[in-house]
């Protein structure tokens, strides 16, 4: 049995499936097994741990539910890439979020247009039709892999300096967070099957599941920006921690 899969004294009291789960989990969390590595087959694990296929399957199912492995029919199980976790009640800076996970961030601006707000722009930003807006499409990468798509509108009537900003070192979201204090924000979170163009930009198949966050921020009652962020559905999750309402 490989050294990192050997039983420890602390495991002797555990149910067999939990013992297997812990051994595999430690191999993953310690870095001995890197993302993308194939997990030993069910048959190999049955021999290593001297147990039934049902027990092995239960352990692997628990690891998959925890997001540590991906199980693919006919292909086996593989160590999952670290899932990005974002709290719902905060505005996160994507570069900092990626850096905190130990990966390198990169971004590219796919499109940038100054225009007069049409009906859709006006509704999204809460401005009058014809007001000046800056529309941008940005793609973010983590460790060289597509991380998120960003579709952003900036209210140039509120942030006129954004028009001349090249956004060559900071993406627009980071630039706005560093420059413009916000007093209120709104998140709307939904799941969606991605259109072919968005899926392609995220290296996903057309119709793949995506996690979509629509966000608006205000300062003193005026909208600063609105953005739609699209994440690969299997590589991102949102969390919230809260207490009971006060009496």
Automatic annotation (TrEMBL):
Any one GO BP annotation for this protein: L-histidine metabolic process
The keyword Transcription regulation appears for this protein: yes
One Pfam family named in its UniProt record: GntR
Alphabetized SUPFAM superfamilies for the sequence: Chorismate lyase-like (SSF64288), Winged helix' DNA-binding domain (SSF46785)
Domain HTH gntR-type positions: 14-82
Sections of the chain in a coiled coil: none
InterPro entries in the cross-refs: Bact_HTH_transcr_reg, Chorismate_lyase_/UTRA_dom_sf, His_ut_repres, Tscrpt_reg_HTH_GntR, UTRA, WH-like_DNA-bd_sf, WH_DNA-bd_sf
Any one GO molecular-function label of the UniProt entry: DNA binding
Name of the molecule in the record: Histidine utilization repressor
Species of provenance: Alsobacter sp. KACC 23698
Lineage, opening ranks: Bacteria, Pseudomonadati, Pseudomonadota, Alphaproteobacteria, Hyphomicrobiales
Name of the gene encoding the protein in the UniProt record: hutC
């Amino acid at each position: 049995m490989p050294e990192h899969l050997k039983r420890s004294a602390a495991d002797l009291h555990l149910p067999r499936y939990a013992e297997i789960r812990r051994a595999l989990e430690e191999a993953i969390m310690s870095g001995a097994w890197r993302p993308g590595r194939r997990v030993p087959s069910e048959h190999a694990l049955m021999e290593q741990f001297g147990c039934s296929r049902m027990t092995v399957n239960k352990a692997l199912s628990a690891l998959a539910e925890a997001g540590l492995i991906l199980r693919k029919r006919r292909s086996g199980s593989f160590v999952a890439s670290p899932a990005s976790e974002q709290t719902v009640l905060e505005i996160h800076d994507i570069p900092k979020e990626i850096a905190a996970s130990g990966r390198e961030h990169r971004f590219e601006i796919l499109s940038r247009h100054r225009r007069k707000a049409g009906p859709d722009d006006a509704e999204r930003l809460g401005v009058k039709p014809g007001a000046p807006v800056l529309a941008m499409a940005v793609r973010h990468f983590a460790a060289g892999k597509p991380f998120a798509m960003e579709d952003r509108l900036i209210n140039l009537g509120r942030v006129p300096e954004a028009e001349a900003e090249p956004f060559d070192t900071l993406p627009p979201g980071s630039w706005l967070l560093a420059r413009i204090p916000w007093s209120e924000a709104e998140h709307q979170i939904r799941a969606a099957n991605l259109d072919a163009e968005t899926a392609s930009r995220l290296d996903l198949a057309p119709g793949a599941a995506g996690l979509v966050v629509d966000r608006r921020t205000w300062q003193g009652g005026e909208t600063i920006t609105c953005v739609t962020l699209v994440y690969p559905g299997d590589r991102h999750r949102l969390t919230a921690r809260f207490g009971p309402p006060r009496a």
